[in-house]
Write a structure and sequence with these properties.
With 106 residues, the chain is mainly alpha-helical. Helices cover 42% and strands 8% of the residues. The chain has a two-stranded antiparallel sheet with strand order 1-2.
């Protein structure tokens, strides 16, 4: 079974949303990626408030806390583009921009 088929099988076997971060970690390792992120909107999971998107990432918890506290969801170009397409996003596609975007990228 190739990596893609293995990933699809793992997705199919997920029991609940709490298993997604571990799956993303395996996907990152399988494909040699530094990080993987998943954003879901309009989820049916009652544990996620309707105004909050479901976020599962392989980033450190401190980074996620900073991301949320600073409202980066509103300026993150990956979110803006990701909501309009299905294909994965490569950060090399983005410029550094200015203002808040420059602070976001560091």
């Amino acid at each position: 079974m190739n990596g893609f088929d293995a990933t699809l099988e793992e997705v199919d076997q997920l029991g609940d949303a709490e298993q997604i971060p571990a799956l993303l970690q395996r996907v990152a390792e399988r494909y040699g990626l530094k990080t993987v992120a998943y954003l879901g909107t309009g989820t049916l999971d009652r544990k996620v408030p309707r105004h909050e998107p479901f976020i599962a990432v392989t980033y450190p918890p401190e980074w996620v806390e900073r991301y949320r506290a600073r409202g980066y969801l509103n300026i993150d170009p990956a979110i803006q583009i990701g909501l309009r397409r299905l294909l994965p996003i490569d950060w090399d596609e983005f410029g550094k921009g200015g203002g808040n975007l420059r602070q976001f990228f560091g």
